[in-house]
Amino acid sequence: MIFETISTSNHEEVVFCHNKDAGLKAIIAIHNTVLGPALGGTRMWPYASEEEALKDVLRLSRGMTYKAAVSGLNLGGGKAVIWGDPNKDKSEALFRAFGRFVNSLGGRYITAEDVGIDVNDMEYVLRETDYVTGVHQVHGGSGDPSPFTAYGTLQGLLASLQVKFGDEDVGKYSYAVQGVGHVGMEFVKLLRERGAKVFVTDINKAAVQRAVDEFGCEAVALDDIYDVDADVYSPTALGGTINEQTLPRLKCKVICGAANNQLANDEIGVELEKRGMLYAPDYAVNAGGLMNVSLEIDGYNRERAMRMMRTIYYNLGRIFEIADRDKIPTYKAADRMAEERITAIGKLRLPHLGAAAPRFQGRRGN
Ligand SMILES: NC(=O)C1=CN([C@@H]2O[C@H](COP(=O)(O)OP(=O)(O)OC[C@H]3O[C@@H](n4cnc5c(N)ncnc54)[C@H](O)[C@@H]3O)[C@@H](O)[C@H]2O)C=CC1
Ligand SMILES: O=C(O)CCC(=O)C(=O)O
Hints:
Radius of gyration: 19 Å
CATH superfamily of the largest domain: NAD(P)-binding Rossmann-like Domain
CATH architecture of the largest domain: 3-Layer(aba) Sandwich
Distance between the termini: 43 Å
Order of helices and strands: HEEEEHEHEHHEHEHEEEHEHHHH
CATH class of the largest domain: Alpha Beta
Oligomer: single chain
Bound molecules: 1,4-dihydronicotinamide adenine dinucleotide, 2-oxoglutaric acid
């Protein structure tokens, strides 16, 4: 059953990590390393079952392959999940045990933050392996990638507004933002700074209150976010929120947010197209964090990172052009762009085997 699943999703390697003393149950999935080592964050979540955790890590790691490819990065796709409650189960031992597993892969997989994980957790991982990014600036790292992901999402939004409305006046439009965590809070701040009307929701009531008090957003109940009459829906929490149940409720003209795996399935992408809703493919929009942490490999440079964020605008423009040219939905255009690059470069290079391990210039003892 597991081999069948892995073979259907075309993964290279899936590692089940277990350490009883540390209470670690984690899965690292390496989807594809044709373009380079697999870089992708670690998610900590109280999954209902092992199947759910496996399904999540497989989808997320595949998405990373496409994200790196479409963004022009020399990176493959991988991701990890730790099965646990981020509010209760974190410890130094847990993250160090996890770090050892990451290290054992010799640089084929490089980790970073995702949902439920912050820069302090990566501090422990760094004690066990160099193959971690998004580490504190004191170590020569780039810190929390979320503000970059949010800024990159803004670039994707500008490209989307341009295509849909013919202008890039963020403040003229209204937004329904689902999830005000690390990325979402930064994103609503950027929207409000530009004068936009912003509706927010989150399961974390304190986060919603902060978005209201500090940034002047309007709170809506969790499920009501799908019914809000806003121009743009921004999924910035977990994946799969655009599905058969929510689609008929959405009134927006543009979908542009930072969450990974927003579409429940490909048919939803086709349906969005039919309904004239512009879908900005998630992995192209939310690549800012990946771009930012990837710069740690050669020596982090913030100015370079900010310049890279702008490429998201052009990547989205290219995706929309392909969709228009080939008369295909935007999700498919993004997939096509990514797959063409992997195929072309794959003909030139063999899969990354760890021989040319990432360097991590300028960090710690380097
Ligand atoms: N942190 C980063 O740089 C990147 C994050 N992403 C994606 O962006 C999304 C958000 O990531 P982060 O902000 O880092 O995570 P986070 O854990 O800081 O924030 C997620 C927020 O979503 C909320 N949430 C969970 N389920 C919800 C629901 N059903 N309805 C409303 N709110 C809900 C949580 O309470 C939390 O506040 C995730 O899908 C992640 O994979 C993608 C690229 C990079
Ligand atoms: O931004 C990060 O934490 C690394 C990249 C990543 O995991 C993602 O883009 O989902």
